[in-house]
């Protein structure tokens, strides 16, 4: 029998009524002839609530204990879901990540999956049960419970689909697919029927919140057939798959944005080998994720280096820079509140002038570009945070993405 993996996000299991709704969907999938594995997130905002409680007790809770705490949210969901399935006359079993064979490294709160042992899963499936796996968690070689980082249930689902060679991995959420832009910002945004793994990776990395970035990397590596769809409707959703000849290669498939960038500039740092390595090494040591980096042309042996980090990483970045700039005897400034707007499209590779058109569109709106970065299928611009929404709408229209 073919295996299907379905993942349900927090909004899809927000209350017991919604849990019953998910139970009905899972039973229907089994009745269609699938062996069914469901990966479930914590109910509603319960992960945030657990996190708040931890921070009421400790400013820096030990990460091992944080994982122990946060992993409970998903266990509540799977246990209730199993009960709901029994009520419908089907059989099910709920499993923690550990019981489901999800092994990770030891990086608490942001662990990576290293292996999936499928023996138990297969036994339970073969006995006719719907198997419910608590998302976002696993077990380390030290036999401690780990979590995979926010949004990690997506990665659990993709990893299980890969290990079980599932026919499809369906990610159920509260939107009915991947859109050309955030519909709350660009009212003309359209749902896409399909995007390539590469496009989805760039979208996830530049602000699209529908899938955790890591889950897309995993899906691409193991060629998992991934689909994003809504648990509140029966709409067909968006396929995330390999780029193929038939796939329409749009020059621009989507416009994404973020509004939580902070810009930092190191002034007149000595222009000699090793300086950038020292600065960014210190940031990496504090787990600061650096996004864009710009180094200006050298003048009289010194140069300015600017880079962006997310707002949440700013305190750690400042701590690192306070020390490093002291050592180097230079100063740094924190720029204004920034955001980033990006255009993504697999067709960009073979189509010149896309970046120029983006810059012109922003210029026509009177929006100043602070920083630029590109990949073969993406152009991103850092701009003032207050102008981000206007920029998204202008680009969405300029690249003819608005609904006809
Ligand atoms: N419950 C976790 C979170 O809120 C994991 C997930 O939902 O995927 O981040
Ligand atoms: Mg999510």
Structure description:
With 404 residues, the protein is of the alpha/beta class. The protein has a domain of 172 residues: 3-Layer(aba) Sandwich (Carbamate kinase), CATH 3.40.1160. Helices cover 34% and strands 27% of the residues. The strands form four sheets. The chain has an eight-stranded mixed β-sheet with strand order 3-6-2-1-9-11-12-10, with helices on both faces. A hairpin with a 6-residue loop joins β14 and β15. It is globular, with a radius of gyration of 23 Å. The structure holds aspartic acid and magnesium ion. The site of magnesium ion has 3 residues, from loops.
What are its keywords?
single chain; 404 residues; alpha/beta; Carbamate kinase; 11 helices; 18 strands; 34% helix; binds aspartic acid; binds magnesium ion
């Amino acid at each position: 029998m073919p295996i299907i993996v379905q993942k349900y996000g927090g909004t899809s299991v927000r209350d017991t009524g919604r849990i019953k709704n998910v139970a009905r969907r899972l039973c229907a999938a089994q009745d269609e002839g699938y062996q069914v594995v469901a990966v479930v997130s914590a109910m509603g905002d319960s992960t945030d609530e657990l996190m708040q409680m931890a921070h009421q007790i400790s400013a820096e809770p030990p990460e091992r204990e944080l994982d122990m705490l946060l992993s409970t949210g998903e266990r509540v969901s799977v246990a209730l879901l199993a009960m709901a399935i029994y009520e419908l006359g089907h059989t099910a079993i709920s499993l923690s990540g550990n019981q489901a064979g999800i092994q990770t490294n030891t990086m608490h709160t942001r662990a990576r999956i290293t292996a999936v042992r499928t023996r138990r899963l297969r036994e339970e499936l073969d006995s006719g049960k719907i198997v419910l796996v608590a998302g976002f968690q696993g077990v380390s070689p030290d036999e401690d419970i780990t979590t995979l980082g926010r949004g990690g249930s997506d990665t659990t689902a993709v990893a299980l689909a890969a290990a079980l060679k599932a026919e499809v991995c369906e990610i159920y959420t509260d939107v009915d697919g991947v859109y050309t832009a955030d519909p709350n910002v660009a009212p003309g945004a359209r749902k896409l029927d399909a995007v390539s793994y590469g496009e989805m990776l760039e979208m996830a990395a530049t602000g699209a919140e529908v899938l955790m970035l890591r889950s897309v990397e995993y899906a691409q590596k193991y060629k998992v057939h991934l689909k994003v769809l809504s648990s509140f409707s029966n709409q067909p959703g968006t396929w995330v798959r390999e780029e193929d000849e038939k796939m329409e290669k749009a020059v621009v498939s989507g416009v994404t944005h973020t509004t939580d960038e902070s810009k930092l500039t190191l002034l007149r740092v000595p222009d000699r080998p090793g300086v950038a390595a020292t600065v960014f090494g210190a940031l990496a040591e504090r787990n600061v994720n650096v996004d864009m980096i710009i180094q200006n042309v050298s003048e009289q042996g010194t140069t300015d280096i600017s880079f962006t980090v997310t707002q949440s990483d700013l305190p750690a970045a400042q701590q690192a820079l306070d020390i490093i700039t002291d050592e180097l005897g230079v100063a740094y400034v924190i720029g204004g509140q920034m955001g980033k707007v990006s255009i993504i499209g697999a067709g960009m590779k073979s189509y010149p002038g896309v970046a120029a058109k983006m810059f012109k569109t922003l210029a026509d709106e009177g929006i100043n570009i602070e920083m630029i970065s590109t990949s073969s299928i993406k152009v991103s611009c850092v701009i003032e945070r207050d102008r981000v929404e206007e920029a998204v709408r202008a680009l969405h229209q300029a690249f003819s993405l608005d609904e006809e």
